[in-house]
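Form 7-S
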Amino acid sequence: LPRSIFGRCVALCAYVRMCLAAVYVCLNVQSDLIFCDSISACLVVFRLFRLFGLCQAPLFFYCHFPDLLLTEHQGFFKRLYRYVVDRLEGWSIGMADLICVNSNFTKGVVAETFPHLDATKLKVLYPTLNTKFFDSAPETELEDVPSSAKYLFVSINRYERKKNIKLAIDAFAELKSLISDDLYRECYLVIAGGFDKLNEENLLHHRELKEYSVDAAISTKQIAFLRSPSDSVKIELLRRSTAVLYTPSNEHFGIVPVEAMYMRSCVIAVNSGGPNESIENGSSGFLVESNARAFAEVMAKLIRGELNRQEIGEAGRKRVQSLFTFEQFSRKLETLMQSLV
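Output:
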């Protein structure tokens, strides 16, 4: 089945594929429990088969974020199309016996978006981190970072405008007014993120950010833009960074701060959304207002040695080990599943 119809109706095609997969499962697979991820439309099929006694397995649904809040509703036909799809999402999600979300922030959004849901069905199950992969990653040469870069600041996000990457550039520019010229010359900013050359926004925003850094008077010798860096380069950036600048607001969860903390890097993030839960402010990282000055002040303190980077790094590592490891995830997931079966 196609993923789209001439580039349109992506959600509808995904719904149809999931519903057909659900029919196959009901007719051909003996299930103790059914786990559905992201797309709730298939829950309708499972419920229908349950009515006829053909599928009695409890339904477990993992909701990353309401889809209706992630898409635009511009144009008459788009609004009409989304009206049908959004109503189906709202109706079908309630058919799960248990609904898990990736953060308390998302839990609040889901409850507000779908007020008809039984609040007792909503549970928080934080995403996990493959710590063994990070532990086994070898040290890698960072060809784009000069040896003169003593203080490395890193932003890792997809090249999308909603990620507010310009804030990282503004903060790096603002940093110049808070430290000496000699110290600032030893600073370096890396903007790294997912990049798809077929994605128009990725192409345009990458170009916009490069032009924006010039307008912000940041020397090309102090900034690099990496497109879809390898995992080894990404991990090395986290390992060597003075701080990771996490700029999105109201992020559903945000795995980058968790990855950074596990690599003992200090995280400076906007004080909203998922980072409010993953970061312990002042201990494992810093939660600040969404403005350049707030970010730059913490960056300057790190450079001047007013904050103990080693203690912050160790606190971040311990926080990840206590909340976000695969062992923690699997233990809670098993408990939730056992409650259904």
